[in-house]
Structure formats: structure tokens, C-alpha cells
Amino acid sequence: MMTEADLKKAINSDNGAVPDFISGMVDDLEYIPRNERLGRAGRLKRKQNKKWLLAIALGAIVLVVVLAMAFDKENPPRDTVAGLEASFTRIEGRLTALEEKIAHLEERLGSEILEKKTALARSGSKKQYHTVVPGDSLSAIATKYGLTVDILCKLNRISVDQPIKPNQTLLVSPD
Asked: What is the C-alpha separation between 162 and 157, in angstroms, rounded?
């Protein structure tokens, strides 16, 4: 082991072996002089600053691209007023053609359709009744008319437990 006196003598000598040795140790230990040390907080701050600068730069690039597209006089956007007017004109033409076809069909079918509609409206508004015969049950009557027993009972204001009698008239359609 080297003593302090030997170390001072070696440093003062001109051969330079000790300073080379010490600089090698500094390189191996990755020594950073005190004035160059940042520490963990300094490194994190530097990383955050880089992220902010990167975000600002990207935002500026996006802004420039958007502004360039918005003020491009040579290639205006597709949704201009003229384009919309052309679309509306086409739609109006198609609508007019459909109206003409409907009018033509109404003329051709004419009164037949109106008569059928009127007949359906009249028959649909008539109330329909069922006269109970011996052997009928609420369930059989409801099934025959496409109803449930509960609906049949509500239409006739009766309960499920209440017996029905032959020649009793039951309402089987709501209107």
C-alpha cells in the first residue's frame, strides 16, 4: 500500500504514471465533476423539457398543415355551395319523378284501392262478438280469435275464475 508521502513524491515526479493511473480510475468510475452533476431531479427536468418542446413542435406542424389546407385557393373543399346546389337539384329531380310515378299508379288503380281501403276501415272498426256454445271455454275462445285469456277477460270485464254460460255473448275484438 502506498503512503501519503509516496503518493506526493509520485505526483511531483515527472514520469506521470500516477496522474495517468488516477485519470484511468476516474474513467472507470465514470466520475462526473461536481459542477457537471445534475442528479436525478435534473435529468427528469431535462426529459420533461424535451417532451414539452416535442409537443409544441408537433402542435405547430399540425397547425401549419391545417391552415395550409384551409387557405388553399387552388383546391377548394368539395363541400362548396355549388356542390351542395348540384346535389339538391339531383334530389329534387328524383323526388319529382317519384311523385309522378305515384300519381300514375293512383290513376291506374283508381277507385279499386279507395274502395278496398274504405271496406277495410269499416270492417276494422266493427266490434266482433262470439256467442258461447256448450263446451266452449275461455281458453278455446281466446285461441280461436288470436287473443290471450287475460285480454279476453279484460274486454268482457270478467275474471278468469268466472264461469261462462251458453248463449252468453263475448266481445272478441277491441273495436
From this structure: 10
Grid coordinates of 155: 274486454
Which residue, among 131, 136, 128, 144, has the nearest Cα to 163 in the 3D structure? Answer: 136
With b meaning 16 or more CB within 10 Å and e meaning fewer, what string describes 4-27? eeeeeeeeeeeeeebeeeeeeeee
Residues 6+ apart with CB under 8 A from 150: 160
155 within 8 A of 172, measured Cβ to Cβ: yes
C-alpha cell at 55: 409537443
Q: Which residue has cell 278455446?
A: 140
- In this structure, what C-alpha cell is assigned to residue 141? 275462445
Give just the sign of the alpha carbon dihedral 32, 34, 35, 41: positive
Say if residue 152 is exposed, middle or buried (CB neighbours under 10 Å; 0-12, 13-18, 19+).
buried
Using a cut of 0.85, tell me whether the model's pTM lies above it: no
The set of cell numbers assigned to 78 is: 368539395
Task: Specify the DSSP class assigned to residue 3.
Answer: -
89-148: per-residue pLDDT in tens?
888 999 899 889 888 877 777 666 566 666 666 665 568 889 999 999 999 998 888 888
Question: How far is the CA of 141 from the CAs of 40, 96, 127, in angstroms?
Answer: 88, 51, 16
